[in-house]
Amino acid sequence: MQLKGFFSAVATVLRPVLVPRPSVIRRTSDGTYFRFETGSRIGIWKAPDLTGPWVYQGAVLPNGSRINKPGRDDLWAPDVREINGRYVLYYTVSTFGSQNSAIGYATSATMEAGSWADGGTTGVESSTGMAYNAIDAALVQVGSSYLMNFGSFWGDIYQVPMNAAATAIAGTPYQIAYDPAGAHAVEGAFMHYRAGMYYLFFSAGTCCGYNDNKPAPGAEYRILVCASASATGPFVDRQGRSCRNGGGTVVLESHDHVYGPGGQGVFADPKRGTILYYHYANTNIGLADSQYQFGWNVLSWSGGWPSV
């Protein structure tokens, strides 16, 4: 297993703080790669190739979100899709450890800085005492329909139908993944379709704060996967364990200088094939959240299950 890519700052402006959950997409019109990252009101980076050089462009929403919740100026967990000829970016408004959360969206024709219009809330919201936390959105298209996967801790991963524009909730959320143990440390779901199967990737463990309070070995972030023939589940891991009862097959975990990989996505790169991308802490650089790196690996599919 070898890390294929890493973050490198080449912009001449002050580099924004890097924290979890990147999103990668390739612009259809010219093949330019875009990477969006948590923090700085969703930072935009561009590159001619997945290997870089990545150059910072600005923020998606430089004035923050119009969603009236705490955290509207510190947006998290971007997920970017091309839908009906335009780009839709989903983002989270919340504060750390809170269920007072909402998933919003912004739209653009080009993804360039200055081109994004805030659409406000998708209607996927949560408050204290609810079964789920409305953060970490990731859309999946099923035929002509759309489903949104979301959630973190509490009841872990939920799914909800979306409208035809994929901008508003169109049903009632239901649970698709859950770890009954401990703090239910599961989040960051991302679904990928391949050869008749839907693969539910997710992050498990402690995501951050490693420099202040490093978790016990094996309790740090890692990337797991479950699969189903249906986008709505039920999902099981490679051993047949239910993803709603602590199941999950390890795809990537700490190794060598790579510590706590997670916040992942899957990207179909026309140059290399199916890519798993993520953030991680490089132990040779530092464990602070502001030092997280961007990494990626080409996925292999031996026996119908992904590995790096």
UniProtKB/TrEMBL annotation:
Q: Which E.C. number(s) belong to this protein?
A: 3.2.1.99
Question: Catalysed reaction(s)?
Answer: Endohydrolysis of (1->5)-alpha-arabinofuranosidic linkages in (1->5)-arabinans
Q: Which UniProt keywords apply?
A: Glycosidase, Hydrolase
Query: Is this entry keyworded Hydrolase?
Result: yes
**EC category:** hydrolase
Annotated metabolic or biological route of this protein: Glycan metabolism; L-arabinan degradation
According to its UniProt record, which protein family does this protein belong to? Belongs to the glycosyl hydrolase 43 family.
Fetch the PANTHER family from UniProt: ARABINAN ENDO-1,5-ALPHA-L-ARABINOSIDASE, ARABINAN ENDO-1,5-ALPHA-L-ARABINOSIDASE A-RELATED
This chain belongs to the protein called arabinan endo-1,5-alpha-L-arabinosidase
Q: Which organism is it from?
A: Parascedosporium putredinis
